[in-house]
Design goal:
- The structure is a single chain.
- About 10% of the residues lie in helices and about 35% in strands.
- The chain is built from 9 helices and 51 strands.
- With about 900 residues, it is mainly β.
Length: about 900
Amino acid sequence: MTAVAVLAALAGSPGVAQAEPPYGPGPLSATDDNPLPPGWRIDGAGGAPELVWRAPKAVPMGDARVEFRTGDRLLGVPKPARDGRTFRLALDETRPKQLTDLQVTAAGRRLDAAADKTHKPGSRGARMPAQAPANGVDPGEPGSYRTVTGKYDLDPVRLPGVDTPVEMTAEVVAPKGATGSRPLAVFLHGRHDTCYKPGSEDDVTGDWPCADGYQPIPSYLGYLRDQQLLASQGYVTVSISANGINAQDWEAEDAGAQARSSLVRQHLARWAAWTAHRSSAPAVVREAAKADLSHVLLVGHSRGGEGVNRAAMDSLYPPPAAEDGYRGPVRWKVRGTVLIGPTIFGQNPVADVPSVTLLPGCDGDVSDLQGEDFVDGTRGISRGTALHSAVYMVGANHNYFNSEWTPGEAVAPARDDFGTDPEQPDPVCAPGAAARLTAAQQHGAGATYIAAAARLFLAGDDRVRPLLDGSGKRAASADPARVLTHAVGGRRSGGFLPDGGAKVTGARLCSAIDPDPAVACLDPETLGSSPHFAGWETEQETGRSAVDLKWSAPGTAARITPAKPLSLRGSQKLALRVFVPPNTTGTKFDVSVTDSSNRRVTLGSVQADGLPGSVNTASYWAQELRVPLSAATRAGLDLRHVKSLELTSRSRSGRAWLMDAWGWAPGTLAVKAATLPRVDVGRTIVKEGDSGTRTYRIPVEISGHGSGQVRVYVLGPDSGRAENRLVTVRPGSDAIDVPVEVKGDTVYGDDVEHDIAVKADHNAVVGKHRGGLTVENDDPEPMITLSPVADRATEGETLTWRMSVDAPTAVDIWQPVRVLPVTEGAELSTKDVDPQWLQESSGDVPDPERPLSDANLWVWLNIPPGSTSVDFVVPTLRDQVAEPTESMRLALTDRNAEPLPDRPVLTGTVLDKP
């Protein structure tokens, strides 16, 4: 079977596009010329070949997606086993020789033992940022309202992508006795273990429903502190449970984003109905203040963050009905979102809904801080009036924002997600380090910034904006946390963006995602990482750039010239988002602008100090640096036509990266969501057939209104390469037309996935970002047999068996054989065979001498595509010792090294040399 995906002439688009534990000991390599790293093996017994990795210890259930990679190339998302250690991935058309530089990652963090740089010390000591001046208003101060707390538990609901119904359980904390309708804040927790055994120290599972003797982990109760603060200030709050999704989302192509969105909207629909008919509401809702559904804030932690982002999107731009778990009317308005250490696998933020993203500096789960894309990914997408803020919290981990994930507070076993080596403690994030927050400090600071978002987005109180928009103010209630912010949107204008045809001189225009170190913004060997450059679906991306500045003497100038002049009229300052290497100090620039008449003015100077960072943190994060535009006004510069920005180094040497620069003015603007087209990629599954050629098309639904542009990546099924093209999309059109040619045959092969990934570029939103066509092999698996070639030999000669298939295949056939103890007579020993062969086949050595079956000889044999057999050869040694006739037994086995019950066990005999 073969299938070829072709990027069609896409209409209206300019440009040219280019789960159970295996047998423990024994070799994990199937061939001498293709060794796999420790912990890896290829399993082909009983079905299609799978790449299997077994972790040295259980990998805790978390929010980051476990991925198999070969270098920078994503192989796929493996299926976890219940033991928490074994992960399996179908190989499809990937050939064993392509499995080089195997890696297991989660949010860019290496999970396998081959992570060479994990414990290299940093080159500089960590340094805490200076304490910012206090803001005039502190949203972390409790309000005056008394509160009421209670639970509701409704009938479970069926949601897309999950088979078992999901609970409709929630905890309400609301002001009591408040007059009128009060804004509603909805909390959604992230992906965590779902069940625990009371009284145990570590017995947790990812099952749903929980087995007998186990109790649900109440993750939804982990935000009570945040809820109580908001309720005291007059907000109705509800935190909803999503254990049913957590137990099943590994099967969902979007990691459960659509299911979580559906769950949130199911709850919102109930609240809308209860608001209209109070008598039908649960007791706690009737006792609470009435909720105002026209002012809703969605708060999501980790995968819950991506879920509430999708809920905000789905509330404005309805998803395809067949994919949705809520199809009723939208009787609410989402005014903003708060995203805590969120995932964003789709890199599809909602540009026209204001947001605050909390980035924990010591996040050990979503450690690449990919949630930064909720800010960066909104630039240029829509009107740009919604404020999108990133809040970097030094010393915060992932779990401690939820008390039910915090040791000492949780009812179930819990842990610090930032693992540390006691012998080499992380200088920034190890417990007790100067920068590291305690659980109470972290949760308190988190509550303050959630309250700041509520006050800005729901109450419209601009006095808290300086805590969120890069203005450099702090909330005293969050002390001693050091918190830094930057933002895009709001009243920013202009926009010096590295993308979109900008010309750069005196510096390097670099790419966020590129396998070529000469092109990439950060070298792969860099210790630490940048949230701005978190990976997506491809090893190379178009349209994600920054300006890389490097100098060895003061006075070095870098100039950024956009494709056309920008207007900074009405702005008070120029705001730059710049990052420098962690733990560095004193990086200084002069900032100048030039208008279309070539009048050049130096606006002032800025200084950037690096964040506290280590090899384990994503501390290459941009700080917002501002210079007044008053000098330009005094000099008569035409701020309506600014043609270039210049940064001139004033420090002796250094390195910095410019993400963007904007005209800035205080305040926010009224946000009205634009009417945009929405793109969702589906999946079609077809049989290959026995003959002929058929052409299918990858299903893509374009809905909504208006016209926009998206970038379409066609992912090669076996090469890892992706061709991409900018596509203009309109509702109802077939602008994204990707045909897949399927040739039928009668040769056994693998299922093959031909996928595309889509990302919004301008005036568009993307829901389900990845999908494609799966071509299923419909030919029978070949019969595998093992037969003797030379099963009687004299010492010094070889024993040979042949593993055969009854017909050639289109894929590698992997099948293990195992040496078993003999049942009678003397057995060959480890000193009767060639020692190099023994080492390569089993990882074992001859001494001490013992029966050959004790040497972990479980070997995976490979029959390459087009071949029908492979020989298993055992070279014996001639010695000077008189010995009786010796033998060995060999059998085909299953993936757990147990002999196949319906296959014979073969015997080889070795005679003593006369």
